[in-house]
Amino acid sequence: MAALSLFLDVPLTREVDWLLDAYREDPSPDKVYLDHRGRSCWLAWVCPTVRQTLLQIANDPTLDHEYLPVLGFPEFTRAATELALGRESRAVIENRAGGVHTVGGTGAVRIGAEFLRRWYNTSSPNSLRCIFQDAGFTEIRPYHYWDTGRLAVAIEEFLEVLESAPDCSIVVLHAPEETGLTPKQWEEVARVMGRKRLFPFFDVPAQGLASGDLDRDAWALRHFVAQGFELFCAQSFSKTFGLYDERVGNLIVVARDNETLVGIRSQLQKQVTGTWATPASLGARVIAMVLNNPALLNKCLRMLAEKIMLIREKLKEKLRILGTPGCWEHLTAQSGTRSFTGLLPSQVAFLEKHKHIYLLGSGQVSVCSINSHNLDYVAQSINEAVSSTVGRAQGLSWAETE
Amino acid sequence: MAALSLFLDVPLTREVDWLLDAYREDPSPDKVYLDHRGRSCWLAWVCPTVRQTLLQIANDPTLDHEYLPVLGFPEFTRAATELALGRESRAVIENRAGGVHTVGGTGAVRIGAEFLRRWYNTSSPNSLRCIFQDAGFTEIRPYHYWDTGRLAVAIEEFLEVLESAPDCSIVVLHAPEETGLTPKQWEEVARVMGRKRLFPFFDVPAQGLASGDLDRDAWALRHFVAQGFELFCAQSFSKTFGLYDERVGNLIVVARDNETLVGIRSQLQKQVTGTWATPASLGARVIAMVLNNPALLNKCLRMLAEKIMLIREKLKEKLRILGTPGCWEHLTAQSGTRSFTGLLPSQVAFLEKHKHIYLLGSGQVSVCSINSHNLDYVAQSINEAVSSTVGRAQGLSWAETE
Questions:
Q1: Per-residue pLDDT for B321 more than 90?
Q2: Is the CA virtual torsion A187, A192, A196, A201 positive or negative?
Q3: How much is the pLDDT for B194?
Q4: What is the pLDDT, as a whole number, of residue B393?
Q5: What pLDDT sits at residue B18?
Q6: A Gene Ontology molecular-function term (chains A, B) (predicted)?
Q7: Over 80: is that where the pLDDT of B16 sits?
Q8: Which residues of A touch B264 (CB under 8 A)?
Q9: Which domains does chain B have, with CATH numbers?
Q10: What is the 3-state secondary structure (H, E, C) of B314-379?
């Protein structure tokens, strides 16, 4: 055997999630991690109903643990697809919407991205960026829909991005229920996208957790379906069900007609066969059982949505009591698991350097990472960051007038 | 919106598993499916220990269902890697062997194949073929190690294939414990592969089920490691644990040294992040718990290996009682879940057309698909196929003298 490795040239890659890496390496006992990507924190709370269902299924002596079909557990994909599109959706009734049970939402994005690379004539789509890159897309453009200065939706800029995109580009619409766009604004987005023949790839990580209402959170997606768009939608249940480690996702395909859907699903089946063969089953069984019991489902979701809004209110109240410069109404005006704080990059850097609090440079935080143990510390730290880095008056100005 | 689908040109692919498709569409109540790929049949029996462990874990109120790390459940990958290589393996001790927790054995082959396409200088590997094709390999050559005429290992032909392969080719060594090669023959294979600098990609779907002995089944793999090869090994636990639907696999990487291993695993981590983000957890927790309890593990494996050998013996005895032409000793001379029956393509076709029994054209069957309900029917049908298609004397001649 040769003495040198065959893989001498393989470079060590940087940790894919450098923020999480910095957090993990920080020895401070006060450290807090406020990014939304991947980590679940207190939201990794499993609703008692889900836990009971899990036990019921694990206890079932008739469950044979046979492989699932390549495209997954049919009761799950059907229930999940109807949850997003609505049971009365014409795409559902006309048999031209179908799901592919995937390994988490990531698996849904990946298998969808690979399909589009192979079959979509022209091609465009953050951690999502790396999935599309891995799937072979080379031209990827980021865009923003949030004005960090005005602390509001940047609808004009968003529409401009769409207008200036090459015709037939793929547009990834991440967490549409959390963007804060109004139905009127979504209608405008759909009009521009239809005219420019842009392909919508929705990514719905937590339907129901923004408003506590499943239908309301699915408004934008359903509007696009109603307008006749063909589209993909990557759907995840990790946050809504707390079963982060069971990796259950669903790739929804809405096609022009059933014949097209059948062709697309056959290609996706081929891709899945060569990627993970068949998905894991237990998590999907638990979720399918709850999805098929709307009373249980709504109870779980309302509990979660209320927990999230309560954290938002508590944080706003703490900042008010501390006299933190600026207006913090946007914390409760927004909803869902993620929040733009309006913190400036210099303030984000202050929090990381002096307070061991880690969040994205854009000031976006995962509300679920804030809990009863770290709430006071986080609020106090934000107060110090805002007060010390820009001064009281300046803090007021960026938050209200810019 | 345009009236035509964006995906008009997407052709319907043939069912990836045409044999399974033919079986599913066959309305006969007598139909039997004897292929090994994917289907588990009676082997989807879950050992009571595994079921208890599953319940214990599902019942654990401290289990938080948080995401696993990208490379998976460390206790699982460590135990699984040591199971294959041996705890005393120099590669383990020198910290240059490591596992990547994958979504089933398929996921292990896929993520390994993609890595090799990106990082291995030159590039070779049945359902495995499609995984490598999907991963971007274009030049793939099939090979055989079984002489269907002589009903014996075709070692000379196998060595010739290796000798004539381009230097530095990748050689997929599927189910080494079931090929029937002796240690001496494996040593010869390793010598040729070392001289030709061929890269070994082992695929171990059921360690322990061939001989009932974990170490004996891992002999070939460990010999290659001991000879200093760098290699990949896709490892599956579906058959040994009966948890087919939890999709637990492990990609073992053995590198020249720890530094190289760290580089390779960092690249694999990047690939996993863009493919399924993190693997599912419950199945891996169950398997890790049993793997870390050797007494339990050996008990489970012995029970399974005995069940498999009993079916082989019963089938041979039935054929003897029926007076089926030919010698059937090879049924019990081989071991493991798959068996070359020595049936000719015309006999395989007879079984499918007249008996609703489906198996590969090579005459290979999954022993686990034969059970107490279909054993008599399968034996009677093989008897008819052999007797009617080639006649008694001819049947004898191909089985004994060719």
A1: yes
A2: negative
A3: 94
A4: 33
A5: 65
A6: L-aspartate:2-oxoglutarate aminotransferase activity
A7: no
A8: 7, 10
A9: 18-46+303-400 (3.90.1150.10), 67-292 (3.40.640.10)
A10: HHHHHHHHHCCCCCCCHHHHCCCCEEECCCCHHHHHHHHHHHCEECCCCCEEEHHHCCCCCHHHHH
What ipTM was estimated for this complex? 0.78
CB atoms inside a 10 Å sphere around CB B215: 12
B148 vs A301: CA distance, rounded Å: 60
Measured in angstroms, the CA of A53 and the nearest CA of chain B are apart by: 10
Q: How far apart are CA B145 and CA B158, in angstroms?
A: 5
Q: Does residue B1 have a pLDDT over 60?
A: no
Q: Is residue A348 within 8 Å of residue A363, measured between CB atoms?
A: yes
pLDDT digits (tens, 9 = 90+) for B198-217: 989 998 888 888 888 888 89
Q: SS3 sequence, B69-80?
A: CCCCCHHHHHHH
* Long-range pairs, A158-167, Cβ under 8 A, ≥24: A158/A189, A159/A188, A159/A189, A159/A192, A162/A189, A162/A192, A162/A193, A162/A196, A162/A198, A163/A192, A163/A196, A165/A124, A165/A141, A165/A196, A165/A198, A166/A122, A166/A124, A167/A122, A167/A196, A167/A197, A167/A198
B1, B45, B56, B96: best to mutate for the A interface, most A CBs within 10 A: B1
Cα dihedral value B317, B321, B326, B329, nearest 10: 20
Q: Which residues pair with B29 in a beta bridge?
A: none
Pairing of strands B97-103, A152-153: unpaired
Q: Which residue in chain A has the smallest CA separation from B249?
A: A276
| Closest Cβ–Cβ partner in B2, B134, B255 for A197 | B2
Dig out the tokens for A369 from the structure.
């990472």
**Burial, B243: exposed, middle or buried (Cβ in 10 Å; 0-12, 13-18, 19+)?**
buried
Q: What is the pLDDT of residue A301?
A: 82
The CA-to-CA distance between both ends of chain B, in Å, stands at: 67
For residue A56, give both structure tokens. 């019921």
Please give the Cα distance from A281 to A392 (Å, whole number).
54
Q: Under DSSP, is residue B83 helix (H, G, I), strand (E, B) or coil?
A: helix
Q: Please state whether beta strands B32-33 and B97-103 pair in parallel, antiparallel, or not at all (unpaired).
A: unpaired
Give residue B257's identity as a one-letter amino acid code.
Answer: D
Pairing of strands B152-153, B146-147: antiparallel
**Amino acid at site A248:** V
Which residues does chain A have within 8 Å of residue B242's beta carbon, measured at their own beta carbons?
65
- Judge whether B360 and B19 are in contact, CB under 8 Å: yes
Tell which residue, B281, B396, B109, B299, has the closest CA to residue A274: B109
Q: At A37, is the secondary structure helix, strand, or coil?
A: coil
Q: Do A264 and B10 touch (CB under 8 A)?
A: yes
Q: Which of A4, A5, A33, A132 to mutate to test the interface with B (most CBs of B within 10 A)?
A: A5
Read off the pLDDT of each residue in B358-383 and give the average, rounded to a whole number.
87
* B116's tokens: 């090799």
Residue of A160, A161, A242 whose CA lies nearest to A209:
A242
Per DSSP, the three-state class of A302 is helix
Report whether pLDDT(B79) > 60: yes
The residue with greater pLDDT, B14 or B322, is B322
Of the pLDDT bands very low, low, confident and very high (cuts 50, 70, 90), residue B120 is low
Secondary structure element (H or E) that encloses residue B250, with its range:
strand B248-254
Chain A contact set for B9 (CB, 8 A): 119
For residues B221 and B84, is the Cβ–Cβ distance under 8 A? yes
Dihedral through CA B377, CA B378, CA B384, CA B385, nearest 10? 150
